[in-house]
Design brief:
Strand order of the largest sheet of chain B: 1-2
Strand content of chain A: under 5%
Order of helices and strands of chain A: HHHHHH
CATH class of the largest domain in chain A: Mainly Alpha
Number of strands of chain A: 0
Structural class of chain A: mainly alpha
Number of helices of chain A: 6
Number of domains of chain B: 1
Number of domains of chain A: 2
Distance between the termini of chain B: 44 Å
Oligomer: heterodimer
Helix content of chain A: over 70%
Distance between the termini of chain A: 61 Å
Radius of gyration of chain A: 20 Å
CATH superfamily of the largest domain in chain A: NADH-ubiquinone/plastoquinone oxidoreductase chain 6, subunit NuoJ
Largest sheet of chain B: 2 strands, antiparallel
Helix content of chain B: 55-70%
Largest interface: A-B, 20 and 25 residues
Structural class of chain B: mainly alpha
Number of helices of chain B: 13
Order of helices and strands of chain B: HHHEEHHHHHHHHHH
Strand content of chain B: under 5%
């Protein structure tokens, strides 16, 4: 039953992820990325992580990607040259490096794939993934990383304001 | 299993029927009549069938016929796929929000607990926020794919306006969340059985900020800079005709209802009548048996809920026809310099009060 939903969703994600890379127009890539994130949120829901799924939509699909689209439209980016994505020589080094990364990740995944028990679903407590549980964990076990992260975000925000201000004055 | 499925399907059908079948078409008529009333005109009264006009209600049918029969036009150089699907992307979030909005409480019918909400998500309030933030894409992509500078300008205004006011909506929701201690919309509604626990008393500032930011999200006057007729022709939907234009129109009207429903759930006591608990109401109809009394109370609650929604819809109509359009920089100033600090202060004060009371 779960696999019936998982495989179409996963396929959807993979197709759109390829769409991000292979698309010639920046807007097309951005839209594929948004669709991919929605699919990923669906997979999170399938794993009973509702809170995580909703955050995925709010932060990535709803906030960051809207800004991406805004910037792409503001700069009015045109389609890339049609010489094909694979033929660009200056990208050769980057392509090789990302290819190596992908092979490394695939190696790791294949290692897990053959040892993991596929048929027995993990037994989860009822409170798994609820807002209350996550809040409690965040403010007890992980309170220091949480606060440090918020200070980091504050610094980034102040930095952005400072950068924008000097240009204005 | 089958019974649950049928109940859920019935709830989905009910919501779709009331939104698409009742509110969206009737609101087009209400908007015409309301504008006529406020501008001292007679209003929509020309469409007639055999000489009967029925207060202009036939304009709804005339509208539908017009939209279905108009030429479906895609401009030269437009991105055909995106141009076609963007009205759908705009309409779906407007409908989807109602999946977590409860339109009544919990009732025992034929020994079965019936919860009048399609999906009682643990993260309901966040779901509403997430879906609202996705609605931006329909409008942004519509403007971009039309290959028209007016459309592009409109969609860029949409993007910046919706991002700005989403911040306020998100922070206001945090205030509501702190007061009620739950993200489940059904629980928030149930707590407000006590009249003094209504959101409008606990979060008075939040009430006004949520209403303002919601209207801005829906891009209606005074926040309709993205589609300003006198500046941008029609903004992001300049190049749309026929039913695709109709879908943008429908999305706007359904969103009016969605805003009304959310305001009702969060701030105006959901489906409850002031000073009248469900238990008292049930005891009045005790002579009808368990199912009978529950059924009567259910109908009363659903009626009360939609009466409150209609009040908020009407309020939005009045605002729409009272105020002039804000200038673009005024909209940004209101969003970032007034509403954002106010909503942060609201969270701070709410936190301090909760701390003092405990």
């Amino acid at each position: 039953m779960e696999l019936l939903i998982f495989y179409p969703l996963a396929g959807f994600c993979v197709v759109l992820a390829l769409g991000v890379v292979l698309n010639n127009s920046p807007v097309g890539s951005a839209i594929s990325l948004i669709g991919m994130m929605l699919g990923l949120a669906g997979i999170f829901v399938l794993q009973q992580a509702h809170f995580l799924a909703i955050l995925q939509i709010i932060i990535y699909a709803g906030a960051i990607m809207v800004l991406f689209m805004f910037v792409i439209m503001l700069l009015n980016l045109k389609e890339g040259d049609d010489t094909g994505w694979i033929a660009r020589e200056r990208n050769l080094l980057l392509s090789v490096l990302t290819g190596l990364l992908a092979v490394g990740i695939l190696y790791k995944i294949s290692g897990i794939l053959f040892t993991a028990e596929m048929d027995t679903p993990a037994i989860l407590p009822d409170s798994f993934g609820t807002v209350a549980t996550i809040g409690e964990t965040l403010f007890t076990d992980f309170v220091l990383p949480f606060e440090v992260a918020s200070i980091l975000l504050l610094a980034a925000m102040v930095g952005a304001v400072v950068l924008a201000k000097t240009k204005l004055d | 299993m089958w019974v649950d499925l049928i109940i859920t399907l019935a709830k989905i059908l009910f919501i779709l029927a009331i939104l698409v079948g009742f509110f969206a078409p009737v609101l087009t008529w209400v908007e015409r009549k309301q504008s006529a009333l406020m501008q001292d005109r007679v209003g929509a009264n020309r469409a007639d069938i055999l000489g009967f006009t029925v207060l202009g209600l036939f304009h709804i049918i005339a509208d539908a016929v017009k939209m279905f029969t108009k030429e479906d036009f895609i401009p030269d150089g437009a991105n055909k796929v995106l141009h076609t699907i963007s009205p759908v992307i705009a309409l779906v979030p407007a409908l989807l929000t109602f999946a977590v909005v409860p339109f009544g409480g919990q009732y025992t019918l034929f020994d079965k607990e019936v919860n009048l909400v399609i999906s009682d998500l643990d993260v309901g309030l966040l779901f509403v926020f997430a879906i609202a933030s996705l609605a931006t894409y329909g409008y942004v992509i519509a403007g971009w794919s039309s290959n028209n500078n007016w459309s592009l300008l409109g969609s860029m205004r949409t993007a910046s306006q919706m991002i700005s006011y989403e911040v306020t909506i998100g922070l206001t929701i945090i205030g509501v969340l702190m007061v009620y201690g739950s993200m489940k919309l059904t629980e928030i509604g149930a707590i407000q059985e006590n009249f003094w626990m209504w959101g409008i008393f606990l979060q008075p500032l939040g009430f006004f900020m949520f209403l303002t930011a919601s209207i801005a999200e829906n891009k209606r006057i005074p926040f309709d800079a993205p589609e300003a007729e006198s500046e941008l022709v029609a903004g992001y939907f300049t190049e749309y005709s026929g039913l695709k234009f109709g879908m943008f129109f429908m999305a706007e009207f359904i969103e009016i209802v969605t805003i009304g429903a959310l305001m009702t759930i969060l701030f105006l006591g959901a489906w409850h009548i002031p000073f009248l608990t469900t238990a008292t109401l049930l005891s009045w109809f005790d002579f009808l048996g368990t199912t009978g009394s529950n059924l009567v109370v259910m109908f009363i609650h659903v009626g009360v809920f939609f009466a409150k929604v209609v009040f908020f819809v009407y309020l939005q109509m009045i605002i729409r026809w009272t105020l002039p359009r804000f200038r673009y920089d005024q909209i940004m100033k209101l969003g970032w310099k007034i509403l954002l600090p106010l909503s942060l202060a609201n969270i701070l004060v709410t936190g301090l009060v909760i701390l003092a009371l405990n």
